[in-house]
Write the structure tokens for this entry.
Amino acid sequence: MQPKHPWLQKCIQKLEELPQIETTTIIEPFLEKILADGLLTIYTPHNKIQYLVEIKAPITLDTVDSNINYIHHLKEKLSNDQRTLLITDSLSDAVLDSLLENNIEFIDTTGNIYLNNSSLYILVRSSSTQSKKFLSAPKITTSTLKVAYALLQDPSILQYHNFDYDLEQIVNVPGIDYTDYTIVKHSILKIIANAASVDYETVKCSLETLYQLNYLQRQRSGTYRIENYTKLLERWEMGYIENLRPELLIGTFSPRENIDFKDISDRILAIAQNQKIIIGGELGAAIFTGYLKPISMTIHIPEEENYRVITTMLRLKPDPKGNIIIFKQFGNKNQPQYPSSKPVADPLLIHAELSLYPDERLKETAKRLYEKCIIPYQEIAEMV
């Protein structure tokens, strides 16, 4: 099962904060021969309503008309009992008004909701409502996200093979007591701390937080295992985009000369190995899948590296609309677990970056990347 898009996760969360609302989601690009991003089912105490989900990049006054026309065109292909729901990032008041005037049902990531059908009517303007449902829940910090990333990349790290013992077996073996088992748990936490580049106590707190939020399952031995890999991946991607990514972002750049994207790509790949740079985004996805013709990339540089050295070597200039984004690396495992002949970022990082731009070419690429590179991680999580 593919993970839900981070915006879809956030919108569903906002919807389920309303009383007596539950949902289920199927992530499948082709539903009844209609190209869509998934099927959302909303349950109320008396009804069940299904929507074909369309995830669209942030909608502005410049693009709202084209999006309205697209939704109307899609509705013409549907039967009378099929409905379309627009999912997007934060909407301005002017765009909200335009969507409402054209009866386009939508949810955005800030909690603006408009559902209007014979079974259900909901209109929420997020500025007038504040959810208190999750105020007491444990908080996922950027340090927790770094720990979660280490677990997603190597699920066996929680059950490290040298220390995978059952507590009862240990205490019943002559010469081994509980103190020895404490050393085992301490060793596991140290391995995770090294992978995530956080301290020992942060790992302990982060694992407890993920357990309290039902992303981890506690074993009789006192160790953990991932409860549901896809759910943890979804939560990590949402947290990465909202919190960790902005913390790591250095800036957006473009080449000083008017050169072809392939030429700048070749130049970056040529110097990446010596500079400990790893490549993500569209270029990284293209390297992994062989499917995409990239037009942008992300560069992840060591935290201690001066980014100006890199931008000077590559002759890059700051440009808010540029197609080269530079990030600081975090932790010690930003590269894939398995060997690669090219300096690419881990598929988890690349998949999260692709989800920021929900157009058709990147959706298909993300699907291929997930099936080729991330499912093997998931299979390990299910075995340990």
The two ends are 19 Å apart (CA to CA). The chain has three domains: 6-128, 142-227, 248-383. The longest strand covers residues 48-55.
